[in-house]
Amino acid sequence: RSAAPTDLVVFGGTGDLAMRKLLPALLLCEKDGRLAPTTRIVAVSRDGIGDADYRGKAEAAVADSPSVLRAGAVPVPVLRRFLDRLHHVPLDLDDPGDGWDRLRALLDAPPSGDGADPDAAGAPGAPDTADAGGRGRVYYLAMPPMLFGRICADLQANGLAGGGSRVVLEKPLGRDLESARGINDAVGAVFSERRTFRIDHYLGKETVQNLLALRFANMFLEPVWNSRWIDHVQITAAETVGVGTRHGYYDRSGAMRDMVQNHLLQLLCLIAMEPPASFEREAVRDEKVKVLQSLAPLSGEGALRHTARGQYSAGSQGGREVPGYTGEPGADGASSTETFVALEAAVANWRWAGVPFYLRTGKRMARRYSEIVVQFRDVPHPIFPGQGAAATSPNRLVIRLQPEETIRLHMLAKEPGAGELRLRPAPLELSLSDGFAVRSPDAYERLLMDVMNGDPTLFMRRDEVEAAWRWVDPIIGAWQGTDPEPYAPGGTGPRGAHDLLARTGRAWHEGE
Ligand code: BG6
């Protein structure tokens, strides 16, 4: 069904996120008929451009978007309809001029231009936070987090933060617990928690939601989903790209703040959480926050022992010379920012006591893939001849988020033949992209629809974000004064990451 009619206002409307992710996702929603006829997309930025120029920029951006290209040709009338929804309002926060008035005038004007709003009042699917006319209003802050509080205050001062509006905050929310609290307080002074949507696009990925279905719509996993049967869990998000043009942002963040504090810990929560009583906003988030609160604290020496961090050097990747992190555009000399993190976390509760959760993420790695590996324990006693080393730890559930979306259960089976009984690995595979004859949407499509429909289930609640910072802060603190280990591009990260597992006789699963 289509989302509720909405005015979606994107602050940072000409920025990287809007151009690379939000507009392509919205176009794909359009293509699938999921935008209400009168939904408008209003980009706000410092650029002094009008609607026509913005539409031109947007058209170029979506034409280049890999997710749009993957989804096949966009019929011309669909593209036209989409571009017609776009508006641009120039607004410099430091020197707004009449920017806020122009934004208000645009939002106050009826969407169809002829005074009629076919979606208005009582439209089916109108969210409970819609205004009196039945339209929702969403402010998407695709801006640096230190501006969030200020934009919210400005929205309020300009009479634009009324009861029907919601705000979407991009991650990372702050750079530590203290700054996250400050931002949450400032945003919370204007938008209630119910109207605040903290986005983590990993939660919008299809396979991530499938992980919830796998765990909680099926019976067979639950009895083995604990420390008695599971040896350890690995969560990897590997990227081939470097930091590209984002050095300014990245150098103040590093992989821990950019990926681990949010995406990787959210995945860990979904693996480790108890079954919620329902698939409802608070029920799911209540269970996730309990996992974050159960993470055994890591600090000082312990943090150093249980983590490895690295920074990519210059070298050859896939047959091409690439710069090191400190040679990227915008870099100015030495930096101790990490572009790779591996760590061992412990969820200290009954279900997971003694099961290490290994998390790893890095840029400029050999291959781009994100996956979760749940490694089951070995059989207590091998009975088949030749079951020795080759058959060590045969049972693994591998949940691949990208590039392909698959869930694979690795097991051993008998090799066909009348000769000696021999065992061979044989995966049971659920291919989510090929197995169902529908296109699987990009994470932002799903999440933007949820925002328009006022459903926060897949968004992070304030206490989740703060619990994640509470755990991450002392680790970052322990790293102060240490330098990340250099690693070659196109490989599997620094030595330290391998040592982290090797000392317990384990190894990273390098995908296949
Ligand atoms: C973003 C990070 O949140 O996630 C980026 O800021 C990273 O640094 C990106 O590249 C990875 O997302 P995906 O969906 O490509 O795995």
TrEMBL record:
Assigned keywords, A-Z: Carbohydrate metabolism, Glucose metabolism, NADP, Oxidoreductase
Active site residues of this protein: H263
Ribosomal protein in keyword set: no
Catalytic reaction list: D-glucose 6-phosphate + NADP(+) = 6-phospho-D-glucono-1,5-lactone + NADPH + H(+)
Record-listed E.C. numbers: 1.1.1.49
Bias kind Low complexity: ranges: 108-129
Domain of life: Bacteria
Residue span of region Disordered: 106-129, 306-334
Binding site for NADP(+): R46, D92, L93, K171
Residue intervals of the Glucose-6-phosphate dehydrogenase C-terminal domain: 212-509
Family annotation (InterPro entries): G6P_DH (IPR001282), G6P_DH_AS (IPR019796), G6P_DH_C (IPR022675), G6P_DH_NAD-bd (IPR022674), NAD(P)-bd_dom_sf (IPR036291)
Residues involved in substrate binding: H201, K205, E239, D258, K363
Functional pathway: Carbohydrate degradation; pentose phosphate pathway; D-ribulose 5-phosphate from D-glucose 6-phosphate (oxidative stage): step 1/3
Domain Glucose-6-phosphate dehydrogenase NAD-binding: 9-109, 134-210
Family from the record: Belongs to the glucose-6-phosphate dehydrogenase family.
Function: Catalyzes the oxidation of glucose 6-phosphate to 6-phosphogluconolactone.
Protein name: Glucose-6-phosphate 1-dehydrogenase
